[in-house]
Amino acid sequence: MDANGIDAAPGFRAARAVADAILYEGYLLYPYRRSSPKNRVRWQFGVVLPEPWARAHGLHGGGVAGSTESWWQQTECLLVAPADAPVHLRLRFLHLRRRTPEERLPDGGHRAADQVGDTLSFDEAVPREHDIRASVAELLSGEKRFDLRVPGFETVTPLPGAEGRTRWREWPLHAQVALSLTLCADDVLKLRVRVENAGREPGAEASRDEALRHALIAAHLLMAVPGGRFVSLLEPPAWAESAAAGCVNAHTFPVLSGDQVVLSSPILLYDNPRIAPESPGDLYDAGEIDEILSLRTLTLTDAEKREARATDPRAAAILDRVEAMTPEDLARLHGTTWNPAEETRPGVPWWDPEADKSVSPDTDSVEIAGVRVSKGSRVRLRPRLQGTDPQDMFLDGRTARVEAVLLDVDGARHLAVTLEDDPAAELNLWYGRFRYFAPEETEPLDGEPV
Questions:
Q1: Mind giving me the DSSP string for 229-245?
Q2: Considering the entire predicted model, what is its pTM?
Q3: Between 258 and 185, residue with greater pLDDT
Q4: What is the spatial distance between Cα 146 and Cα 172, in angstroms, rounded to a whole number?
């Protein structure tokens, strides 16, 4: 791409880091060994299968969740840009590559084996990227379709010590991407990107493992509009609410990274997602906590580590990185403090609320609709229906008791509450398990007027 392309767009680097984590989410789950049951069913997100196979197995598509498989994905998002502004698109996915060790026979021939020496048979992943570019004016004039092909190949490489060889095989891929723009009210544009697997193999009788050889795995999009800006679908401005409500996303969902870059991901995210700076490297399980995974990896036996190294080079890299971590590295994974200049109480750990004299969840209060709300106050829940936990919609209108008023690292207040009609409320209170809402998501039912 040129110097003004997608890589140079503000927010692209942060989006790319998150996209890399998405690309390999679930590729190798702890304990990173082929024999682990959780690694026998792989490739769970953003799988775009060949259309004939998907239709034959009832995978017609629909819904946002990227774990629901189909032969297509659709992203719709909003942008504001002049006619001459370019729209940059990068489609990224994994391509399955089969690694098969072959043992050397006495007559000089070779035979496929499950393991030869330290090499195991395994389905590896090859990252693929395809760039597309069109101007706003071109897309407004009509839909543009782009044909993407990845040729298959087969090759062999010798194994160390003349024990045998490794056969590598990739199957061909064929995808099509359709782009279009439509003008909505108030000069906002709706961009639609549809990604389809146009491959014709394998047949309907094939297994999912065979179909995955011809699939786009963990497929997602990075998009940039230099000279324009994208509009959030999670929290759209009032003037774009109607257009945002009309966007239809299937098997993926777009979130902002700044205002010129969008990441459309098969894993649901919030706007402006970031990788924690304390993370020392990818553990291929972004849904877990680095500290837990690193400590668990250190407990592997020598035999388990040998199998992990034989499973995949990325697994070997994880072991090397974790084993090289210092106590200071592990301490950083435990958490981080905010505003170290804040006065703390001697002898009290930093993570204890008592460490900060300015914070007292049991006595702090917050003003809501002219009423002072604190621990013990009653509120009615009015959760946002966008940009929050989808399960919160079931709590709309229910009453709750405030158990604490909390302050997060960004200086925002939150209410920790227990539901009044929850039979387990007392047990949850004893365990310290609460539901959390912003003050503006509640209506005070009692309390002292301000």
A1: EEE-SSS--GGGHHHHH
A2: 0.73
A3: 258
A4: 17
